[in-house]
Amino acid sequence: MSAPLLKVEGLTKRFHAGGGLFTRQRTMTAVRDVDLAIDRGEVVGVVGESGCGKSTLARLVLRLLEPTVGRITLDGVDFTGLSPKALRSARRRMAMVFQDPYSSLDPRYTVADIIAEPFVVQSRAMPAGAIEEMLDAVGLPGTAATQYPHQLSGGQRQRVGIARALALRPEFVVLDEPTASLDVSIQAQIIELLSSLRDRFGLTYLFISHDLGLVRYFCDRIVVMYLGSVCEILPGARSKPRHPYTSALLASSFSPDPAARREIIPLVGEIPSPFNLPAGCAFAGRCPRVTEACRTQQPPLSREGGHAVACFNPL
Amino acid sequence: MTALLSLRDVSVDIGRNRLLDGINLTVDRGQVLGLVGESGSGKSLTALAITGLLPLIGGSITGGAIHFDGVNLASIGEAGIRTLRGKRIGFVMQNPMIALDAVQRVGEQIDVVSRLHLGLSRQAARLRTLDLMAQLRIPEPGAVAEAYPHQLSGGMKQRIVIAMALAGEPDLIIADEPTTALDVTVQAQIIQILTRLSRERGLALLLITHDMGVVAQACDRVAVLYAGRIAEERAVGSIFAAPAHPYTAALIGCIPREGMAPGSLLGIPGAVPTSGRYPPGCRFHPRCTNAADLCRQDRPTLRPLQSGGSVACHFAMTETP
Question: How many separate domains does chain B show?
Fold first, then answer.
């Protein structure tokens, strides 16, 4: 087996708040000790509710944020130690598609300018016909090149965002909730587009989403996060969850089948504040299987084959 | 037979554009009606028309009639509608941060509804507020009532907005995408609270959503809206089992289901046309896989189906009339 394309080891990010003249400084841990390896050609999904650290993880992986502790390697190159200049040239190999196609495109740029920008940033000559080729790849007509973002629909804008991300032919792409602000009809189009682009360009994806149903459809492997930590890694889209949180997440998603209508037992309680994490398992306060050990000790992520779960009383 | 709420051939214009065109809907007591469609189909506009809030966005009702409990809303004037709104019709908006006053404690914001509409005293209103909060499973209602909106989570704020909508003892609640801004585990809680209220108190609930999963789990009937017109209106069980309108079928096909093969998520090509640029004939024909010449020329009227409900399609998929 070949080495993984992306490897993340012991990744931790802490943010500080306050610490001014009148307030005590408080520290929150947005991402806590995450280990992850992604093979070439794989689609790995990261799911969790708001505040679980999935978007912070996405930004850390591309070093848009500096990690507090930990190491990121892409194809054997250690990203964490690179100087700004070396980082810029190494970033050619990775890209990101953002959640909101309304705020991630510059309204004063034409579509052609937007897609050409990565070449400008990287000081590389743009091959002739590159814009037309990218527009065609993402299913936009050639006439879109001279248009501005406000003239496009949400789905078309996200296609422009994807074209920009793929302009330099990266190997690894982080997709941060790329369909969260789109209608379901458009979401389905974008997901199928991403899937065909993956085959065509040999891409590897890290797909961030809050929608477990979508992740189970699109991804090969699923990482479930809760309050900054990985609580479970499912080796396949159909793997049966072992962590009570994953199971609750699955039970909360509504299936589009009225025959499967059921009484959902909603999770009680609220997510604890990330400024004040409990000593034991972060999920202990809402967990139906909680025992004494859960409140005092953090369960380690134990692996069995490809399936990893951080729980003292797994299902 | 009189339904609690009925819309008959309702049309809404903003300026010269007709944004809702001949909408027919009914909601009975104890019933949950889902209103679905993509953005731009006119879902929220329908809610504004029922609550008499169209003037806020420069719109007006230009055809048809809305009856609430036997009364034509056009006949009671602005003051009459204002009394209904809040007292007999509760409104839950998509974004709880906009619906709440940021500088007033949330308990007081609920109190004011029952003081205004039920004429309760300050103390009686507060008791009622705490009771409502407990029914909505808000932990420690006394403490939460003293909080300001920014101190509460999104799910908690949405529950406060629902408490406000319930405080006037309404007969009808209109919930416009009440869970879109919330996490899935919280969404499940809120949807469950709303449907339970409808069952236990005989409330009529008009649930506006773009999520067919929510429709399948929570609604009794569903109306599918496309570009300002009703495409199909039926009981939830039959619409999912055998959608009659190609648009309904396409919407259902957009949602990943358990065990779906890769590449089978179809989507709907193109986008909803904007008002003023509606195509002639059936407005869905440019995106429809079954479209024929007839669809490009003639507008399909809403006609009843043998299995109940109605559909507006020349080539309805389930049965021949």
Answer: 1
* Confidence (pTM): 0.86
Query: What's the CATH number where A213 sits?
Result: 3.40.50.300
Smallest Cα distance from B321 to chain A, Å = 26
- Under the banding of pLDDT at 50, 70 and 90, the label for residue A263 is low
Judged by DSSP in three states, B262 sits in coil
Are A258 and B236 within 8 A, CB to CB?
yes
Domain span at residue B158? 100-169
Report DSSP state, residue A43.
Answer: E
Spell out which chain A residues touch chain B, with contact meaning CB-CB distance below 8 angstroms.
49-50, 153, 155, 183-189, 191-192, 195, 210-214, 216-218, 238, 248-249, 251-261, 264, 266-267, 269-271
Beta strands per DSSP E along chain B? 5-14, 17-27, 32-36, 59-68, 71-72, 89-92, 172-176, 204-208, 221-226, 229-235, 303-304, 310-311
**SS percent in chain A: helix, strand, coil, step 5:** 35, 25, 45
CA–CA gap between residue A246 and residue B226 (Å, rounded): 36
Asked whether residue A248 is assigned to any structural domain, the reply reads: no
Neighbours of B301 (CB within 10 A): 11
Asked if the structure places residue B243 within a domain, the reply is no
Q: Is residue A291 part of a domain?
A: no
Maximum separation of any 2 CA atoms in chain B, in Å: 67
For residues A172 and A42, what is the distance between their CA atoms, to the nearest angstrom? 10
User: Which amino acid is residue A284, in one-letter code?
Assistant: A
The total number of structural domains in chain A stands at: 1
- Position B4 in a domain: no
Rounded Cα distance, A179 and A283, in Å: 28
Is the confidence at residue A203, as pLDDT, over 70? yes
Instruction: Please give the Cα distance from A149 to B66 (Å, whole number).
Output: 39
Report the chain A residue with the minimal C-alpha distance to residue B237.
Answer: A258
| Local structure of B273: helix, strand or coil | coil
Residue to test with chain A: of B217, B226, B284, B288, most A Cβ within 10 A: B217
What's chain B's length in residues?
Answer: 321
In contact, B152 and B105? CB cutoff 8 Å: no
Q: Using one digit for the tens of pLDDT, what is the confidence trace for B67-116?
A: 999 999 988 888 888 888 888 999 998 788 888 999 999 999 999 999 99
Give the H or E element holding residue A32.
strand A26-38
Residues of A in contact with B210 (CB under 8 A): 183-184
B255 vs B257: CA distance, rounded Å: 6
Nearest chain A residue (CA) to B239: A258
* Chain A residues touching residue B288 (CB < 8 angstroms): none
Beta bridge pairs of residue B61:
B12
Is residue A274 assigned to a domain?
A: no
| Listed residue (B98, B186, B196) closest to A267, CA to CA | B186
The string of DSSP codes covering B281-316 is SSTTGGG-TT--HHHHHSPPPPEE-TTSSEE--TT-
Chain B interface test: which of A158, A184, A195, A271 (most B C-beta within 10 Å) = A184
Q: Give the span between the Cα atoms of B193 and B162, in whole angstroms.
A: 9
Classify residue B2: in a domain, yes or no.
no
Residue B7 pairs in a beta bridge with: B25, B66
ipTM over 0.85: no
